[in-house]
Amino acid sequence: MGFHIKSASAGRDFLLRGVCGFALVLALAVPAHAQSAADASDPAASNARDTTRLEEIVVTAQRRGQNLQDVPVAVTAFNSNTLAQSGVASVRELGQLDSSLNLNQGSGTIVPFLRGVGNPSGTTNGNEASVPVYIDDVYYTRLAPIDLELANVERVEVLKGPQGTLFGRNASGGAIQVFTRDPGSEMEFQGKLGYANYDTVSGQIYFSTPITDRVGFNVSASGLHQGDGWGKNLTSGQETYKNKFFNVRGKFVGDLTDTTTIHLAAFYNRQRTGQGVTNGLYQGRLNGTPPLPSYGPTQQIPAPPFYDSIATKNNFINHRGWGVSLKIQQDLDFADLVSISAIRKATELYYTDGENLPFNFLAYDLHSYDRQISQELQLKSRSGSSFDWIVGGFYLNSKQGYVPSHITGDALTASGIEAQDLYGLQTVNSLSGYGQATFHVVPEGTNITLGLRYTSDKVHGVGHQTLIFPGGTTFPLPGGEYDKEFTFNKLTYKVALDHKFGRNVMGYVSFSRGYKSGTFNTLPLASDPSRPETVQAYEIGLKSELFDRKLRINAAIFQNDIQNPQVVTVFRSCTPPGSNNCVNSVGLTNAEKARTRGVELDSSAVVADGLTIQAGFVYLDAKYVDFANAPFYFPNPNPPYGNLPPVLGDASGNRLSQVPKWRLHGGFDYVWDASFGKVTFNANAAYTDSFYWDADNILKQGAYTIVNGSIAFSPSADDRFTVTLWAKNLAGEKYYGTQLTLAGFAGNIASPAPPRTYGIDVGFKF
Hints:
Radius of gyration: 26 Å
Number of strands: 44
Strand content: over 45%
Helix content: under 10%
Largest sheet: 22 strands, antiparallel, barrel
Number of domains: 1
Low-confidence stretches: 1-48
Mean pLDDT: 89
CATH topology: Maltoporin, Chain A
């Protein structure tokens, strides 16, 4: 929808006309009384009126609705009201409110880390994250940034520690659940329009209406067009790190009978972005001229200013995706039966200059393919049963890879080759059965939870490589054919004991196992998959609500012992051997053992009427216990500069890559109800300690602090409208969101995280 725009001004006009036109049509259709009725039916809006106590939070961390404080799992949860007041415009920004969570963006995908467990090479298509994300109960094998740009979020739950029973598909580090709003019994229409620096126009709308007394429908849409880049490409003159997207989701909810309910949902999205892709050179590192005679003598090439680049062409990702899901809930006499069916498909073109230098040495057109079909069945006890139980089964069929990766450049033509194609496609058939039960040993006092899951994954990889010569002649690369299938089976489990020390204090201990399946490197797919990753987790936690729900403190001490941790590495191959046509590709290898252990705390308090503060931290002692054959990338101080070819060394005892020792967050929300209207003040800050990018612990990201703030005003004369002034990264911290260490003259390439941004939003509701 937004990808055939001829100019930035045309794009802004198109976006504004579309959103405003839709807003006008719906506003005329919504009766005047819909505002009060909708507010009354919205639990978040109703709870927001009580500014003297913390909101009671209901989560589904055990696949049934429970009070957050009664669940023997470390969970942080945020509803739409909390997210709005905290200035979180996208689920991608949740790390600002939860120190244990880090949501990186790299090469077209979101890479979550929880308590130091994560997999940065999730950027390679086919490798699923160690922390899975579910949207409306549907598991996403690969999560694009646009998938989290949602205009109708109801709540987000972050489940910490292995979730190997109920969320078994690659949940070795935890799980994230995102739920969007269901249509209510009354008509509702709301949205917002925004303008920010970098000439950024944005809009969101949400419309919900009953169709009959048993069926309702809603639709939401969000869009953004950034006219100016964060920096400039000093070679081409283009602006860098621009972004635009469009996302629409719709949902039907209907009671077919008194005992049968369906949720039918669908989405479509598109995005073209230069953000989150490695478009620049890492500051402070040496880079050199590519080794071709036509480029002249080797010389140092200094990195340009932080948000600038010097590549021949800007790197970008062009993404398009869609999906449909159907959830059927059937109330039986003795239990509830739930069926969740889903299909999702996405395609991407990821263009990248392989070295980010002002030479056409190698350029990659990565044509990414991602398709998944999933089916889950759950049978669970009804409320009031003598013990709580759930049994279920899960099936996933996915195909992911590159079809193909098309490589061109002077390095190839110097060898008489026009192009090289790398095909790599991974097919996964995963089948699992699970069960979990909670026994009330002492009613309202002590509970024991036992859970088991058995997973069988069949992983099939097919790959080949083709050289293309002038005139269109093709030649299969000898030894480049690959076609193998592997089966990985694993039993995961959970044992937990929780006890109520009074009405509002609960303690728990748990022992659990998480599992992440083996996976192929799809770029290129030419070798056997990595070994599965297993996490044994031990946890002691305390949950408390004090002073009539004015203070909430949740804390946990934990240790994760990781067997065969999957680690990102860069492979370098030359075709033909000894030539300058050397391709750097990202993939996985396995360390032998790793460990993360630490302590975390989250707290919230209402300190005065309308004033709420939040604070939390996590301390992590995370290291490789045994990694005898880790790749080390030492900088080359001599021509051709960059990095020396990787050498294998012992990284045992080194810190885990991309895991800081400390992360802290804190902030406040203050709601001032004045005679002229309601004013909401918000500020929050998040500190991230320094960390190493790779297992060799050579290249370090320095510590940084991100400060965000906002002021929102709703006039008493017409509280249907709200004006919000906001700013993010107020201190203008310069830090990297992702980095890739390459062997050879290119050195280290990286993508900056967002600079200081600020703007104004106008919200409305009818």
